[in-house]
């Protein structure tokens, strides 16, 4: 009996399970491993962090997807991979041996070695981390009531990338609720963003990026660009602007510092001995490791290169779902006739839309630029489509976004 082990129940890993369960026969065993017993929509973490969505709104049990007659689910932490002996080491269960391994272990927040980030900034890479940010914000509002120190009302977001901009929108939506808790006006809740680049949102056209930046500024957000964060202390961010030789150093006081500057793939990937950079591997045309053809690398641990070979595709839910479906089909082919699919993995983005709160969005979909209400509705339909592709109709009806009119 062939044993296929899937590590990670994010978009990519759970999609493999969802598709492969339809194709495998009695001579194939599937095992899924994840640290949690739930799948969460990672694209919505910013809403949980701001408190505009509850954790249960963006998650559902892995058991809703897994068929016990076909797949064994193990809730545990992956601690190491032994590629030579085809073994997965777990924290609380016996080692797993595999014939085929699918690594979809997701991402972790990246501090880039900046002093104080790990100790004093709040990451937003998991559902638990997003909920921790929300609880921290509530605690800071309560503390302001006690000490009347404005720094408890200040929020600093490190990074004005896609995630940072979406978080700004969600926090703006939450402003009144936070202000009511602190006993202040919404305008007293100060949202600041510090970004090293001066060219923001490069995934969009210059015109669309400018629209998004102006939208964020219209919320009264303090957007500081060309500013390199050099240190994070308890309640303070230090940054520099200008040429390194004569840079001007400034500080910003805030009791809430949220880190969205970047992510890397799971450290398990680097530790396993793959040819990786920051936890990401450039896979073969069939999404396997170039040195281990029975090991697939998908989702956030895969750096899939476009035809021009300049830089990897962004790690979005859209490409993760595409990888998951391809790998399921490729595995089904190999398990049936011992051969890879004749066609390699290819990817064509259907577009990218950024939400800036519940009622504002902008982006590109199906070759057209969208903004305002149309973009907001499109974003929610994209979320529903992703939910359907893994969780099916039942999860869409339970967790889908149908608040299209506002």
TrEMBL record:
UniProt key word Cytoplasm: no
Query: What cofactor is this protein dependent on?
Result: FAD
- Please give a single GO biological process term from the UniProt record: aerobic electron transport chain
What would you give as a GO molecular function for this chain, any one? NAD(P)H dehydrogenase (quinone) activity
Query: Pfam families attached here?
Result: Pyr_redox_2 (PF07992)
Q: Which UniProt keywords apply?
A: FAD, Flavoprotein, Oxidoreductase
Domain FAD/NAD(P)-binding: where?
3-324
Q: Tell me its family.
A: Belongs to the NADH dehydrogenase family.
What is the name attached to this protein's record?
NADH dehydrogenase
- Which source organism does the UniProt entry give? Limosilactobacillus gastricus PS3
């Amino acid at each position: 009996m062939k044993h296929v082990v899937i590590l990670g129940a994010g978009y990519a890993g759970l999609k493999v399970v969802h598709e492969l369960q339809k194709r495998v026969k009695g001579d194939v065993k599937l095992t899924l491993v994840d640290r949690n017993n739930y799948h969460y929509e990672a694209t919505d973490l910013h809403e949980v962090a701001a408190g505009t969505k509850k954790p249960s709104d963006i998650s559902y049990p892995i058991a809703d997807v897994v068929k016990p007659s076909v797949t064994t689910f193990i809730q545990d932490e992956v601690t190491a991979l032994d590629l030579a002996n085809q073994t997965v080491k777990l924290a609380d269960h016996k080692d797993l041996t595999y014939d085929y391994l699918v690594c979809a272990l997701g991402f972790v927040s990246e501090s880039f070695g900046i002093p104080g980030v790990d100790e004093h900034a709040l990451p937003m890479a998991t559902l638990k981390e997003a909920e921790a940010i929300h609880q921290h914000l509530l605690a800071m509002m309560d503390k302001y009531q006690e000490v009347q120190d404005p720094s408890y009302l200040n929020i600093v977001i490190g990074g004005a990338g896609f995630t940072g901009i979406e978080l700004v929108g969600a926090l703006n939506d939450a402003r009144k609720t936070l202000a009511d808790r602190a006993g202040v006006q919404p305008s007293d809740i100060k949202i600041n963003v510090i970004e090293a680049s001066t060219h923001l949102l490069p995934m969009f056209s210059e015109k669309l990026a400018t629209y998004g930046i102006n939208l964020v500024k219209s919320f009264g957000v303090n957007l500081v660009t060309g500013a390199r964060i050099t240190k994070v202390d308890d309640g303070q961010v230090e940054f520099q602007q200008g040429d390194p030789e004569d840079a001007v150093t400034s500080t910003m006081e805030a009791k809430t510092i949220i880190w969205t500057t970047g992510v890397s793939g799971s450290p398990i990937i680097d530790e396993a001995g793959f040819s990786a950079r920051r936890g990401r591997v450039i896979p073969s045309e069939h999404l396997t490791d170039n040195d281990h053809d029975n090991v697939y690398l998908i989702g956030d641990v895969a750096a899939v290169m476009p035809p021009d070979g300049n830089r990897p595709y962004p790690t979005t839910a859209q490409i993760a779902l595409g990888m998951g479906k391809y790998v399921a089909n490729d595995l089904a082919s190999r398990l049936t006739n011992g051969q890879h699919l004749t066609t390699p993995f290819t990817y064509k983005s259907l577009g990218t839309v950024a939400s800036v709160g519940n009622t504002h969005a902008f982006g590109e979909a199906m070759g057209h630029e969208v903004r305002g209400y149309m973009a907001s509705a499109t974003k929610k339909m994209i979320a529903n489509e992703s939910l359907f592709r893994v969780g099916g109709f039942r999860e869409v009806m339970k967790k889908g976004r149908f608040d299209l009119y506002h």
